[in-house]
Amino acid sequence: DTGIFERRDILLELLEQRTSPDGSDLGGRLAHLFQVLNTPEANRQATLDEDLARFPYINGDLFAETLLIADFDSAMRKALLDACRFDWTEISPAIFGTLFQSVMESEEQRIKGSHYTSEANVLKVIEPLFLDDLRAEFERLRRSRGTRRNAELHAFRQRLGRMRFLDPACGCGNFLVIAYRELRQLEIEVLRELFPSRQLGLLADALSLVNVDQFHGIDLDEFPKRITEIALWMMDHIMNNRLSLEFGEAFARIPLTSSPRVVCGEASKRSVSPPIQWRSGRPGCSGSASSRRTPSRRANRWPSCGRRSSTGSAWRSCSPTGPSPGTPTYAAWRMSTS
Predict the structure, then answer these.
(1) CA torsion angle for 92, 97, 103, 104 (degrees, to 10)?
(2) Residues 2-42: pLDDT tens digits?
(3) What number of other Cβ atoms are within 10 A of residue 19's Cβ?
(4) Mean pLDDT throughout 284-290?
(5) Average pLDDT score, the chain
(6) CA–CA gap between residue 60 and residue 52 (Å, rounded)
(7) Comparing C-alpha atoms, which of 276, 277, 295, 274 is closest to residue 286?
(8) Is residue 214 scored above 50 in pLDDT?
(9) Residues 6 or more apart from 128 whose CB is under 8 A from it?
(10) From CA 160, how far away is CA 40, in angstroms rounded?
């Protein structure tokens, strides 16, 4: 439980107290819960079970799809309850990449070019690409003692909320999730400088200008696309909690009004809306050697430009028209060198 609902452990209580030990009714209870999470409070039936009525409306299409009811047994119910009891607040959503890769067959992983990139290696790529420059600019503004210091800090914060990021072979979204976390953390540091007394006043309703809809991803498969979306929403929740603790103002984005812009398809064959002026990427490829790529994927390689990191990952920035003023966009491209 990450505390995303109004009161912690209400999911654990529901499953412990309102499902049978043998798990026979657990699938139906979860299906009903998902329906409730996708229904605005005003549209819910007056006779709705009070234990279900406690759950908020989530939105974001997260629970919109109707799934077949799963059949559980006692062991599966126990595993789910153990997961509910675990404190997930300190677990990075980036772990989903590891979990997803661990259940893939090695041949499938090779064919799809699926390779989990550790957080440390992600940072080695994104820091020289854009984070170092942003941090240096913030540090310059922070040390400034001019009369326009606060105005420039406000403008810098607004620019963070306009930046857009694309990973055209996003997999489970580690690059996007970690980039989002770092951008939100930088925004918190800006707010500390603007409001040293931690009194935000009217700004409390719009504490964060950085949101998940600034982050675009493309992947060949539906499952990693969904993981990317959920991981970004979870990181958003974690950073909202961090922001609330920092300034003593409750800040949440439930129901979800913005969604990560992640789509399925070949990166070279898709356009991104709104247009990404700085784009780069690798459509899916089968490992690192060109001999292992399928003919269609060899034909879909994008032209090379940009720089390569020491971690075996490369970030490309190609701009036939040039970036629009004040709205830089960065994108990730990765290829295993093993």
Answers:
(1) 180
(2) 566 666 789 999 999 999 999 999 999 999 999 999 999 99
(3) 20
(4) 37
(5) 77
(6) 19
(7) 295
(8) yes
(9) 309
(10) 31
> φ and ψ at 166, to 5 degrees?
-130, 130
Q: Quote the tokens at residue 10.
A: 């209400």
Distance CA 40, CA 57 (A): 5
Q: Residues in the chain, how many? A: 338
Model pLDDT, residue 3: 60
Strand order in the sheet with 307-308: 307-308, 313-315, 333-334
Per-residue three-class SS string for the chain: CCCCCCCCCHHHHHHHHHCCCCCCCHHHHHHHHHHHHCCCHHHCCCCCCHHHHCCCCCECCCCCCCCCCCCCCHHHHHHHHHHHHCCCCCCCCCHHHHHHHHCCCHHHHHHHCCCCCCHHHHHHHHHHHHHHHHHHHHHHHHHCCCCCHHHHHHHHHHHHCCCEEEECCCCCCHHHHHHHHHHHHHHHHHHHHHCCCCCCHHHHHHCCCCCHHHEEEEECCHHHHHHHHHHHHHHHHHHHHHHHHHHCCCCCCCCECCCCEEEECCHHHCCCCCCCCCECCCCCCCCCCHHHCCHHHHHCCCCCCCEECCCCEEECCECCCCCCCCCCEEECEECCCC
Compute and round to an integer the Cα radius of gyration of the chain: 22
Q: Both ends of the chain: CA-CA distance in Å?
A: 37
pLDDT in tens, 57-84: 987 677 888 888 999 999 999 999 999 9
Q: From CA 335, how far away is CA 141, in angstroms rounded?
A: 36
